[in-house]
Design brief:
The chain has 604 residues and is of the alpha+beta class. The protein is built from 14 helices and 17 strands. The protein has 4 domains: 137 residues, no CATH class; 104 residues, no CATH class; 124 residues, no CATH class; 141 residues, no CATH class. About 4% of the residues have low confidence. It comes from Hyphopichia burtonii NRRL Y-1933.
Length: 604
């Protein structure tokens, strides 16, 4: 018993035994770690200001209290105040009995009171926990309207299952006093009107933007189809294709010469790409390849080139430029007011130039034995004292002086053969057109084994006829010089002679042919007719010399035929003649020796 007259009761769970074990009193040594940490947090409240010195002070105060024995235990104990009754000395025995009875009754009543208070405390704790959980759910549901993830993480499973997130919101409300009632109502009306006005403005803005976008799209589509119609009105061939850049549907144009009979690998295809800014179309060339039976298109950057012919003549043992063809700029002038049409015409012109040089290069490879050489992008044809140079030149529209031969036409000698160079260029282009025409007519015939063979093995005759006719002119001139020199050696009193030259004697056979260029692909043929009369015996000789070539056009072939007549009358009537000689030559020196021997024998 304490000196103050109060009794300290220690609520030790072991006093009740196993039968009366209180489920609400737990041994701290057996508590789980999560419950133990919770109790420590409740007792300590906060560890923010915990220091090493404070822990030392707490331990020292605790040790001092245990050593003095003045402080009762604080854990799991209840202090019950009890006032002892006054006991007289005379009735000591009765008092002892009464005290014992009262002690037993007091213990029983205190235990019941303790159980009741403990039950009430548990109910209060449960109620507090329930209210705390409800408050937490309320706050979580309130926060979920702004931060759904945070609210969902702190919300109870039951509330999360039955109540959707964001269903509870809050706004700051002003005081609704009687004085401010009218003003609040006016403000509410203004707010409502403002919301409606804002909504109407937003809808109006959306419709206006949609209308503007639709008008822009209509203008772009109108511009696009207007330009497509312009291209179609220019008699261009349009077709559907896929844009090789993004694979979208597009319209292509055929500007090549495939339908005209061309067999060039570049078919002349381009995509009319739509500009997303203003709806106009742009001309972009593409290359087509056949992969597994499917046509695929690849974008390409075209480099425009044109064919130029130069003539270099030998002057003072050195070759000088004496002629050059001009660039036909009028063929690519801006004839149309539409840029897309001009771009197509320009691409078509340079495609023809590219096709021409391609076929010229193929022919030049087979004429190396005839003083024709191929160096890089130049074809050199050497004939006597002249060199014909055919080259592919890159087109530069900014270099007008070079296109107009300003630097070359400086004097009369440098521009002496300009017309000849231009004629050579025109001839090559016309011959390529004739090949197109021939190839087109060949495709229109009934397909047979012969026509298929011709389509596969037919090549254009451009460079070979040009070389053959130039050499033919030189051979005629050389033969005429040879005959004049040879006949001048004989005495005119003993030998009378007459020479007639019939150039291109096969023209008469080709007059009825509709294609005037057919003679260009035929072997050139010119005839020299020589009439000799021996003054002593009046006998006559008729010498026919035919200057021609082989199928290659570049080889020289001379056919010699000599007929003897007894007199001039038989010669004129072409009767009673005797064939003395009929032979072929490939060299002028050989025929000169043969004619010298024949004339000397005729005079004897």
């Amino acid at each position: 018993m304490a000196s103050s007259g109060k009794i300290a009761l220690d609520l030790d769970p072991e006093l009740y035994g196993d039968a009366h074990n209180d489920p609400f009193l737990q041994d701290e040594e057996k508590l789980p770690i999560n419950e133990l940490i919770t109790r420590i947090l409740v007792e300590r409240k906060s560890f923010l200001n915990l220091t090493e010195e404070s822990l030392h002070e707490e331990l020292e105060s605790k040790n001092n209290g245990e050593s003095n024995g003045n402080e009762p235990k604080q854990v799991d104990e209840e202090i019950v105040e009890y006032t002892a009754p006054d006991i007289s000395i005379d009735g000591q025995q009765n008092n002892d009995l009464l005290e014992k009875t009262q002690d037993e009754d007091s213990k029983e009543s205190d235990f019941e009171k303790f159980q009741t208070q403990k039950q009430e405390l548990a109910n209060h704790i449960g109620l507090a926990l329930n209210e705390t959980s409800l408050s937490l759910d309320f706050v979580s549901l309130l926060i979920s309207a702004v931060k759904p993830n945070v609210g969902k993480a702190t919300m109870s499973p039951h509330l999360n299952k039955n109540i959707p997130l964001g269903s509870l919101g809050a706004d700051r409300l002003g005081r609704n006093d009687e004085k401010d009632a009218n003003e609040t109502k006016k403000n509410s009306d203004k707010i409502g009107y403002g919301w409606k006005y804002q909504a109407l403005n937003n809808v109006t803005k959306l419709f206006r933007n949609a209308s503007t976008n639709l008008n822009e799209q209509i203008l772009k589509e109108r511009q696009y189809w207007s330009m497509v119609r312009t291209v179609l009105d220019n008699d261009e061939v349009l077709f559907r294709m896929r844009d090789p850049i993004d694979g979208s549907k597009a319209i292509g144009v055929k500007y090549g010469f495939g339908d005209s009979g061309s067999s060039y690998h570049d078919k002349g295809l381009a995509v009319l790409r739509k500009d997303s800014q203003n709806g106009s179309i742009e001309f972009n060339s593409v290359l087509s390849t056949n992969v597994g039976g499917h046509v695929q298109y690849k974008p390409t950057d075209k480099v425009y080139k044109y064919v130029r012919v130069k003539i270099l003549s030998k002057i003072d043992d050195d070759f000088m430029l004496t002629g050059q063809s001009r660039f036909e700029s009028e063929l690519i002038t801006q004839n149309s007011q539409h840029k897309i049409v001009n771009d197509i015409e320009k691409a078509r012109f340079f495609l023809f130039e590219e096709d021409l040089f391609y076929h010229l290069t193929r022919e030049a490879k087979s004429l190396i034995n005839y003083n024709v050489s191929l160096i890089s992008n130049k074809i050199l044809i050497e004939i006597n004292d002249e060199i014909i140079e055919i080259e592919s030149v890159m087109y530069d529209e900014n270099n007008v002086d070079d296109l107009q031969n300003t630097y070359q036409n400086t004097n009369e000698l440098s521009s002496l053969n300009n017309k000849k160079a231009q004629s050579i260029l025109t001839f090559t282009k016309l011959m390529l057109c004739c090949y197109y025409n021939y190839n087109l007519r060949l495709k229109q015939k009934i397909p047979t084994s012969v026509t298929k063979w011709k389509q596969t093995n037919t090549h254009p005759l451009i460079l070979r006829p040009l070389l053959g006719h130039i050499r033919h002119q030189i051979n005629i001139s050389n033969m005429n010089t040879l005959l004049e020199t040879m006949l001048s050696k004989f005495d005119p009193a003993k030998l009378k002679h007459k020479v007639e030259i019939l150039k291109y004697s096969n023209i008469g056979k080709l007059v009825k042919i509709e294609n005037a260029f057919q003679k260009s692909i035929e072997k050139p043929l010119s005839t020299f007719k020589i009439f000799l009369e021996n003054s002593s015996n009046k006998t006559c000789l008729k010498i026919d010399i035919e200057i021609t070539a082989t199928e290659v056009f570049a080889n020289l072939v001379i056919n010699l035929s000599i007929i003897k007549y007894d007199n001039e009358k038989d010669l004129d009537a072409n009767e009673g003649g005797t064939n003395l000689l009929q032979i072929n030559f490939t060299d002028l020196n050989d025929i000169e020796e043969c004619l010298n021997w024949t004339i000397l024998k005729f005079l004897k």
